[in-house]
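[Q] Does anyone have a clean structure-token version of this?
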Amino acid sequence: MHVVNLQDKNSIANKFIAEMRDVSIHKDAMRFRKNVERIGELLGYELSKTLHYETKKVTTPLGEASVALPSDAIVICSILRAGLPLHNGLLNCFDSAENSFISAYRHHTSKKEFEIKVEYLASPSLKGKTLILADPMLATGRTFVNVLEALKPMGTPKKIHLVSVIGSKQGIVYLNKTLPRDTRLWIAAIDDSLDENGYIVPGLGDAGDLSFGDKLQR
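[A] Here you go.
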């Protein structure tokens, strides 16, 4: 699996990540959602450099211009509910993309043990298309794997891109061992560890709750 980490080079992404982590700022839900969206736009821009392009003519008021335009059929799939702001950021880049939505959550079987439950799915065909799968937090990596398994009846994509805001080294190692080698991960920051409950440290907390409010545990 090929990994592109925005923090390998300094950019404005650092400011957005800092605000999302900062306990004195990140509980402003509107700002948190906007920063996730901004990260989605930056990751989408970097991802766009790997797409296929075709040169087309565009008529201007004074003549014609040749422009290389992306030719891939793209489907953006976000993992509900935390993935929605990230989805919006990607959609700002790929405004003609098709859209897919799937729910996934941690179902705790004990205080420290959990399984990933996948339930709701609404998706177009993925056959031969470029799939961009968005989830802001990459902790254990199991959510991405389970969701990709649930998407198999929708057809086999030509290319799979995973997009996250913050991930753990352990989760990335797991994905690298589990997913096809040509999968690409686009991420804004990678943290060193997970705590005993499987949460990213230092991380930022629960991205879904920070975006949309607290929920009752299932």
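[Q] Thanks! Anything notable?
[A] The mean pLDDT is 91.
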